[in-house]
Amino acid sequence: MFDGQSPVCDDPRPAGWRTAGPSPSLRALDFLGRMPIPLRRPFKSGLDRVVAQQRAAGDFPLSCSFLMGGEWQAPFQGLAECPAGDLPGMVVSSWSPDLMSADWLNRFGRTAPFPVHPACRQAGLVDPLGVFAVFAVIPLVFLVDHDRLGGRSAPRRWSDLLGPQFRRDVIFGGWRPNDRLPFTDFNEFLLLCLLEEFGPDGIAAFAANVKTLLHNVRTIRVAGSSSDQGAAVAVLPWLQADLCPRRDRTSVVWPEDGALAMPIGFVAKSGRMERLRPLIDYVTGPSLGAVLAKNRYPPAAAGVADAFPAAARLKWLGWDHVRGHDMAERTKLAARLFFGAWTG
Q1: Do 60 and 149 belong to one domain?
Q2: Which has the least CB within 10 A, 34, 110, 180, 220?
Q3: CATH code: domain of residue 186
């Protein structure tokens, strides 16, 4: 959200792993994946075990590339334009506008359904065509600073962030090298969701209320403090909001109309489903589910206790909308409208 192929020789990772780097084709890969930074190490540890178990059992070796560190965008850049025959067997990623096009999704097969949490089903996160299998969610919530709220009520719904009571008193995630340059990273998903629900006027109203964009880590450091970088309301992933150290002065508010649900999921090729079964079982299974729940990236699969707050609702764009629109262009439009209004 904010955050190639060559045989491994002296790499300490298990046999079957491949590293990011120049590659004429990704088709030899069974698995290509990336995850948000807080999940990378535990996710890779579990994946290592799957690869090792396959090797120890004498079964077919799995060829996997999981991206860590600064190279995590490669080789995803340009992947959407990759011919279907050159794609990996399975791709895991959080939401990306390039990977949410109908053309991209049509290159993969229908995956076997699995039981999902009621909040995910009610929000429509289950792809009715069964192609993009959501196995985790990045919920966007509010972190409110009680002192900065003064006599105002805390926001309860997303529409509250558009009202004049929060003029220049909202923060969301973004990063730029210095204040003379434009933001090179920002929460595109938030802006897209606001555009799709409230239209251009809603984006302009939200822009009027945004004080600044801060890296999520910086936001939780200043929330509840006297820093002049703080604001009454911050929009954050649930994990970061929950990590704020000044919880006597701040509260996490789960929006009544639903936390914006950025999905983490996978697509897989029809002809390789059986071969991919150990990997699919891993990403949808209880072991990873417990890791996801502990880190506030709740698993979509049912069965992990207390993964979501009681009665929590989620808000999702809808698969008909995703398939019926150019998500990359809509995302660019949302950013253009926001920054035009915010800096104008």
Answers
A1: no
A2: 180
A3: 3.40.190.10
DSSP state string for 25-94: --TT-SEEE---GGGHHHHHHHHHHHHHHHHHTT-PPP-EEE--GGGTTTTTTTGGGS-GGGS-SEEEEE
One domain, residues 182 and 62: no
Count CB atoms within 10 A of the CB of residue 231.
24
228 phi/psi in degrees, rounded to 5:
-75, -5
pLDDT tens-digit map of 313-334: 999 999 999 999 999 999 999 9
Instruction: Write out the residue range of the structural domain in which residue 218 sits.
Output: 139-259+332-343
Tell me the DSSP string of 134-191.
EEEEEEEEEEEEHHHHTTSPPP-SGGGGGSGGGTT-EEEEEE-SSTTS--SEE-HHHH
- Cα–Cα distance list, 212 to 174, 229, 259 (Å): 9, 8, 21
Q: Are strands 133-145 and 233-237 parallel, antiparallel or unpaired?
A: antiparallel
From 295, 307, 335, 332, select the one nearest 172 (Cα to Cα).
335
- Per the CB < 8 A criterion, the answer to whether 130 and 268 are in contact is no
Q: Looking at the structure, tell me whether residues 152 and 86 fall in a common domain.
A: no
Lowest mean pLDDT among 15-19, 35-39, 166-170, 257-261: 15-19
Q: What is the pTM of this model?
A: 0.91
Same domain for 144 and 117, yes or no, is: no
How do residues 240-260 score in pLDDT, each as one tens digit?
Answer: 999 999 999 999 999 999 999
